Amino acid sequence: YGDHRDLHLSIRRQRQMCIRDRNYTVLQSSTTTVYKFSSRHATWVKDGIWYQVHGEQPLSDAQLLALAQNS
User: Fold this and answer.
1) 57 — phi, psi (to 5°)?
2) Whole-angstrom distance, CA of residue 46 vs CA of residue 53
3) Three-state DSSP class for 52?
4) How many Å from the N-terminal Cα to the C-terminal Cα in the chain?
5) Taking the C-alpha atoms of 33, 14, 10 and 26 in order, what is their torsion angle to the nearest 10 degrees?
6) In this structure, is the dihedral angle defined by the CA atoms of residues 56, 61, 64 and 70, taken in order, positive or negative?
7) pTM (predicted TM-score)
8) pLDDT band at 2 (very low <50, low <70, confident <90, very high)
9) Could you give the CA distance from residue 2 to residue 20 in angstroms, rounded to a whole number?
10) pLDDT per residue over 11-56, tens digit each?
11) From edge to edge, which strands make up the β-sheet containing 41-46?
């Protein structure tokens, strides 16, 4: 069990560093916080699952929030 927890903490630290070291905009829905790095890249955590969006076409704030709310 110790190895799993160590890996989990390492992943959490990497995610925190990634968010801390970048410029981003926070989008807030009633249940989810979306970190938007650009109109083509965003991330959020919902129910313990980490989601990321990377795309070639830009998404509006409303589209990103809809994705997060329906994930």
Assistant:
1) -105, 140
2) 14
3) strand
4) 29
5) -10
6) negative
7) 0.66
8) very low
9) 27
10) 455 555 455 666 888 999 888 899 999 999 999 998 889 999 998 9
11) 25-28, 33-38, 41-46, 49-54
